[in-house]
Amino acid sequence: MDPLLIGITTDYAPAEPGRDPRYFLKSSYVSYFREEGVRVVLLPFLSSDFTDDWTFLDGIVLSGSGPDIPPHFYGEEKTWLPGLWMPEERVNFELSLLRLSEREGMPLFGICGGFQTMNVLRGGTLVQDLLTERPGGLAHQESKHPVTLGPLWGRLAEREGKIRENQVLVNSFHHQGVKRLGERLEIEAVSGDNLVEGFRDPDHPFFAGVQWHPERMPEGDDFSRILRDTFLDACLKYRTGRR
Q: Global pTM?
């Protein structure tokens, strides 16, 4: 059987003295998804005009990134200043991939910043800085905390017999988060301070995202494996259905 082809969006570093601009991806993403029978394809945001070039993929992952989505994409002014903002070319490219996923039914998994972009596509908004806008909440940068799973993800975890009390421990590397949930998204994970940490579209074969980084959880983490395997199963069904 031919391997599954999973496209993962890349980060970008501009030109510096003595070094050309470059696209790159942290190795943990490749390690996380590079199972037997899976090949990873890096997706540079060259242009959002060529989205159909990626229709050969069996699934898409929107990776996380340090820079934030410029707030005009969700109809707000910048309040977090000076801020580190994502290139608009990348945002437009990822939005075009999300529309490709919606149109074709191609499985898509968003992680951290990719999760936030999914929410924006669906008309949701973001908290530009959690410490500023939600003082007294959990420490979401460089920390770990539990999340409570929603109905479907809770059943997946229970079926595996690995997760008890409907909670899992996740890492946390973000200062932004979901403010208003996007349309047709159902919450599947929430933190103790009521921040949305995971969601999915129940009418799509696999359109789901998480605010944390499952690819950076300890090797052998049960729920990270469940998320990955569920995504890859959907990718296999999608490819089989196209043939």
A: 0.95
